[in-house]
Specification:
7 helices, mainly alpha
């Protein structure tokens, strides 16, 4: 790999540039992996964007120069501008909440045995915390909204919808 317009055979200057670039690529990869753990769609989009830009810049010298010019004099000279470093927070972040308790029953078994009506009857007996336990245990908070809800009827509806959807998934092929 060569950087800054230097041929890889031109000596140790290119070797140092290659080594620096490899370190920066590794740091960028680590940052994308951290992002992927919290926002996988954003991480995937960034990877796709960088890949398209890098491929086009490799094919089109004018495009590469335009990018370098847009990023400032350091980039135009072939030097990669380091990402800003994050300062340690002034105070310690609050401790994470403990994991939720397991749900009081398996909604899939209740649905299988008593149908939708049986499941609704059993869910009606539970308070908000127990409903959230079921949602957490069975990963039913796919949009990260249900754990914020405080209305039992909304939580019950989420559980019934997800149980029905997952229990009947693939029925068209039977």
């Amino acid at each position: 790999m060569s950087t800054g317009g230097l041929d890889s055979n031109s000596g140790s200057g290119s070797d140092v540039s290659d080594a620096r670039l490899r370190v920066q690529i590794g740091e960028a990869s680590a940052a994308l992996l951290r992002l992927n753990s919290t926002a996988p769609n954003a991480a995937g989009s960034l990877v796709a964007l960088v890949r398209v830009i890098a491929d086009e810049a490799a094919r089109n010298k004018r495009f590469a120069n335009a990018i370098a010019g847009a990023l400032g004099p350091a980039a135009a000279a072939g030097n990669v501008v380091p990402a800003p470093t994050r300062q340690a927070p002034a105070r310690q972040a609050p401790a994470r909440r403990a994991k939720r308790a397991p749900g009081p029953f398996d909604p899939f078994e209740v649905f299988r045995d008593g149908g939708e009506a049986g499941l609704r009857d059993k869910l009606a007996l539970l308070d908000v915390d127990r409903l959230k336990d079921i949602i957490a245990e069975h990963a039913m908070d796919y949009d990260k909204l249900a754990m914020r809800w405080r209305t039992p009827s909304k939580l019950q509806e989420r559980i019934v919808d997800r149980v029905k959807a997952l229990s009947t998934k693939g029925d068209a092929f039977r």
